[in-house]
Backbone:
């Protein structure tokens, strides 16, 4: 009963260790008393050197284990650990489509250009002579009338001569038309026919300008009619075709009867007709550009290049 060890059950190695410890203590105590008696009480005795003393009893066989000589450590080669294949992920990934490519807008004419209404009065209708003059004075583009609501489609034969020569000379050519706005669909059809015309060598017009006039010029201009025409024209030719709105000079008098808000939105650029006659051209042009800048469109002012004497001006 109880948790202690019985004497009869003490292992032999433990009993041997006890005997050795008892003998060692007895030797130390005897040496201390002898030293004290020689030097007087109270003084510490010099510690004798330790000596190995045989115990009174021999240790039973098997009570000690002789020390073995240390052997050189041997390195165990590292076993190659095979990496387990990664578990397939159960998560799904979503690859977003690339952002849509925004097509570049049509190229806006740069530099100076010339308008041709009646080709027979421009170098006698000689397309090669017109191109030569344009190059000589540093022009970059030409506008050629392609029709009106009164005359229908015009000057296609002239374009057949002009377009290949202009392309070879790096000149842009744009058609222009005078819509009446009585039937916007008819006006749009005529404009589309001019843009679809193909000259020898596969050359086409580089864009189109609509000369949108007031009722004083014989049109049936209203804001609704002008807006309908612009929207239908844009839908017919698409976003990549250059469309230029040719509009009257925005003088205070013109603003009372002409809606620029209805005309401009469908077009890529605005070309105000700043014909000065008896007015200062510099100030007139500056005023026109200032007003039209509110629409955020490129502006291409059209100046006077004809004898205005017949109209009562210079």
Residues:
């Amino acid at each position: 009963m109880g948790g202690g060890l019985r004497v009869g059950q003490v292992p032999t190695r433990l009993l041997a260790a006890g005997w050795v410890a008892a003998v060692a203590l007895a030797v130390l105590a005897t040496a201390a008393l002898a030293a004290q008696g020689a030097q007087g009480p109270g003084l510490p005795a010099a510690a004798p050197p330790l000596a190995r003393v045989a115990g009174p009893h021999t240790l039973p066989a098997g009570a000690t284990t002789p020390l073995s000589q240390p052997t050189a450590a041997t390195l165990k080669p590292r076993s190659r650990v095979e990496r387990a294949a990664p578990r397939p992920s159960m998560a799904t990934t979503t690859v977003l489509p690339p952002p849509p490519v925004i097509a570049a807008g049509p190229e806006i004419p740069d530099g100076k250009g010339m308008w041709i209404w009646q080709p027979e009065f421009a170098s006698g209708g000689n397309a090669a002579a017109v191109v030569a003059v344009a190059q000589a004075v540093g022009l970059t583009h030409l506008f050629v009338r392609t029709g009106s609501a009164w005359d229908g489609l015009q000057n296609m034969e002239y374009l057949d001569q002009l377009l290949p020569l202009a392309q070879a000379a790096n000149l842009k050519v744009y058609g222009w038309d005078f819509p009446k706005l009585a039937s916007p669909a008819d006006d749009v059809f005529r404009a589309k026919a001019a843009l679809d015309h193909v000259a020898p060598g596969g050359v086409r017009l580089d864009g189109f300008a609509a000369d949108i006039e007031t009722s004083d010029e014989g049109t049936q201009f209203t804001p609704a009619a002008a807006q309908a025409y612009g929207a239908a024209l844009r839908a017919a030719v698409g976003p990549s075709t250059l469309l230029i709105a040719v509009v009257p000079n925005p003088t205070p008098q013109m603003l009372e009867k002409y809606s620029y808000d209805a005309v401009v939105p469908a077009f890529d650029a605005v070309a105000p007709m700043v014909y000065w006659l008896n007015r200062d051209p510099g100030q007139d042009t500056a005023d026109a550009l200032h007003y039209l800048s509110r629409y955020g469109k490129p502006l291409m002012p059209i100046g006077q290049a004809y004898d205005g004497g017949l109209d009562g001006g210079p």
User: Anything to note?
Assistant: Residues 159 and 199 are 7 Å apart (CA to CA).
